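Need residues for this backbone.
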């Protein structure tokens, strides 16, 4: 295992291995490396197509991949639980976050495969959620740990995923059933737009080690992380309560721009960056490590898999009234 300052731990594989066979033979060792380091980048496998990636993922996660639900932007489905990365403008970064940390059930393990590395940028950065937690001022941590955080979404049909795409169901009754089963408050607007609110823990204990981790998307899905000109346009068209997504404190109070800026600064100080090379594989512990996607130029194709489902409230560090 190669470790360099500022970069993700890397495992170099001798070129020429059959990726599927290698994955089957090294599954336990690779999973142990993820447990030790939080994330591992495997270089040299030469992954080259979606079918091969799906087979590798299946060998690495005997429990199987889980479907993508509640995504805030669309993904292209490939096969067997393998998806494209989120549809997001190439010139806009995706800030640090834990995948689906706003969902009742989220993946404990993320798998990424690079079929085409971009010519410039596009790094999937990672940051240790334990170190991030320690670096956030104690008073901010206490409030979020006590109250949790709130995600408000508006499915307006124009920006981001539709509710049919997010929930995997089409009719209103099925949407409402999904929301009730997943602790999501919902309200239909007169024009048919769906608005939802879901309250989740912001700090959780790691399911294996019990360590406290900063685990949420408070900064990424905040109105203050949206490019200013885009935010102004969205507020003008949809109103401040109709943004595609926004985050609040668990009691519903707004989160100031200063706090969002501070969180992003902490993430930046703890980010590990390793530029993608075509054929790379990366496994990320989704509780221990946040991940991001930097702006890029040129074609970029990253295939994503999700595994090891966890329930947010099973890992909570604080009893939150009305959380379930």
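Answer:
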């Amino acid at each position: 295992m190669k470790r360099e300052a500022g970069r993700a731990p890397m495992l170099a594989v001798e070129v020429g291995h059959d990726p599927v066979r290698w994955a089957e033979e090294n599954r336990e060792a690779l999973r142990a490396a993820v447990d030790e380091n939080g994330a591992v980048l495997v270089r040299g496998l030469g992954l080259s197509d979606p079918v091969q990636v799906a087979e590798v993922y299946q060998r690495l996660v005997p429990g199987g991949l889980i479907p993508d639900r509640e995504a805030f932007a669309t993904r292209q489905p490939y096969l067997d639980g393998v998806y494209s990365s989120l549809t997001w403008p190439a010139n806009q970064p995706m800030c640090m976050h834990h995948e689906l940390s706003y969902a009742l059930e989220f993946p404990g393990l993320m798998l990424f495969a690079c079929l085409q590395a971009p010519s410039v940028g596009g790094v999937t950065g990672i940051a240790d959620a334990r170190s991030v937690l320690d670096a956030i001022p104690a008073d901010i941590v206490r409030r979020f740990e006590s109250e949790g955080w709130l995600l408000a979404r508006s499915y307006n049909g124009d920006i981001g995923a539709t509710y049919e795409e997010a929930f995997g169901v089409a009719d209103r009754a099925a949407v409402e059933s999904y929301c009730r089963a997943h602790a999501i408050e919902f309200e239909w607007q007169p024009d048919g737009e769906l608005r939802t609110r879901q309250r989740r823990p912001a700090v959780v204990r790691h399911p294996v080690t019990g360590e406290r981790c900063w685990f949420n998307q408070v900064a990424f899905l905040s109105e203050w992380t949206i490019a200013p000109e885009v935010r102004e346009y969205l507020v003008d068209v949809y109103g401040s309560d109709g943004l595609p997504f926004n985050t609040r404190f668990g009691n519903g109070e707004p989160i100031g721009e200063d706090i969002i800026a501070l969180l992003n600064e902490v993430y930046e100080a703890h980010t590990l960056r390793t530029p993608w090379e075509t054929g790379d594989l990366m496994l990320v512990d989704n509780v221990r490590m946040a991940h991001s996607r930097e702006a890029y130029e040129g074609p970029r194709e990253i295939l994503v898999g999700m595994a090891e489902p966890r329930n947010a409230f099973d890992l909570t560090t604080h009893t939150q009234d009305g959380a379930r």
